[in-house]
């Protein structure tokens, strides 16, 4: 008498579903946003610092700098530009060295995940936090300081392309400057002084035309000055254009300079970005 042993039934293999590039980018973006929100220091500094500065400076300075234009209105436009620079240039320039020093970038590089997904996640985070911060600043400014929102579609369009070009340029420059930091701790020391100096010379805290000529010329080499000037064209009266260094808001030049910095930032990213620290080789 022979006995037969029955083989266990095998389940058919379930085909794995490949995740598309868009879904990969969105997942990485959601991860970056979650990590940002879990860092209380980053949230407070990035979201709260511009609001605090507006409250302080508005309480100290309330004079008119031009007919129908108060210092507070002028300062608010500069702080909107500063907020966009903070969430992109400063935030990336500080956090990427931390991730590099902790070996996060090295592990990313060793996975099958395409390298562009990492940068897509950073871009999504910058856009999401940048939009939230801009809405917060506008809400505070309209509610407490009588800032007039753009009244025409043309001004909203100007606001859109100035913000997009400015954030793009600052994001690329933030990724590029992150390679200068040797360690996680040195990221802030490298980036923060640069951001502060640019704020002081770009017409954020002081009326731009009242700064020394050499300081105006240095500021004109960098994106923040042009972001501030473009946003003044959105939120301040057309008559204020005569108070600008060029005698007008020069929106054409604003677009050219910001677009040029997008190209410069991209070239710097492609040629300088490092996935590992110098001690890793």
UniProtKB/TrEMBL annotation:
Primary localization: membrane
GO CC list: ATP-binding cassette (ABC) transporter complex
Keywords assigned: Antibiotic resistance, Cell membrane, Membrane, Transmembrane, Transmembrane helix, Transport
All residue ranges annotated as the ABC transmembrane type-2 domain in the record: 41-276
Subcellular location: Cell membrane; Membrane
Source superkingdom: Bacteria
Topology relative to the membrane: Multi-pass membrane protein
Single GO MF annotation: ABC-type transporter activity
GO annotation terms (biological process): response to antibiotic
Record-linked InterPro entries: ABC2_TM, ABC2_TM_bact-type, ABC_2_transport, Nod_factor_ABC_transporter
Entry-linked Pfam families: ABC2_membrane (PF01061)
Keyword ATP-binding: no
Entry's transmembrane regions: 43-62, 74-96, 116-144, 156-177, 189-208, 254-273
Cross-referenced PANTHER family: NODULATION PROTEIN J
Family per record: Belongs to the ABC-2 integral membrane protein family.
Protein's name in the database: Transport permease protein
Organism: Micromonospora globbae
């Amino acid at each position: 008498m022979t006995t037969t042993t029955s083989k266990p039934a095998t389940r058919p293999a379930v085909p794995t579903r490949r995740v598309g590039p868009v879904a990969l980018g969105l997942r990485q973006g959601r991860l970056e946003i979650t990590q940002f929100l879990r860092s209380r220091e980053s949230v407070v500094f990035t979201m709260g610092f511009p609001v605090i500065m507006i409250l302080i400076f508005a309480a100290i300075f309330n004079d008119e700098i031009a007919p129908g234009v108060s210092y507070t209105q002028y300062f608010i436009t500069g702080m909107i530009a500063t907020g966009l620079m903070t969430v992109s240039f400063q935030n990336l320039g500080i956090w990427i060295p931390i991730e590099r020093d902790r070996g996060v970038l090295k592990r990313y590089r060793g996975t099958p995940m395409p390298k562009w997904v990492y940068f897509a996640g950073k871009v999504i985070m910058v856009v999401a936090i940048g939009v939230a911060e801009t809405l917060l600043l506008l809400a505070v400014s309209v509610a407490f300081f009588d800032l007039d929102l753009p009244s025409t579609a043309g001004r909203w369009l100007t606001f859109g392309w100035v913000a997009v070009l400015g954030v793009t340029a600052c994001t690329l420059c933030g990724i590029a400057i992150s390679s200068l930091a040797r360690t996680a701790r040195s990221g802030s020391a490298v980036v923060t002084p640069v951001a502060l100096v640019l704020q002081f010379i770009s017409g954020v805290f002081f009326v731009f035309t009242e700064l020394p000529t050499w300081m105006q010329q240095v500021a004109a080499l960098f994106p923040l000055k042009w972001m501030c000037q473009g946003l003044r064209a959105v939120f301040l009266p057309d008559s204020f254009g005569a108070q600008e260094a060029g005698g007008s808001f020069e929106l054409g030049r604003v677009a050219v300079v910001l677009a040029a910095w997008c190209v410069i930032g991209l070239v710097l990213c492609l040629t300088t970005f490092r996935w590992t620290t110098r001690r890793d080789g």
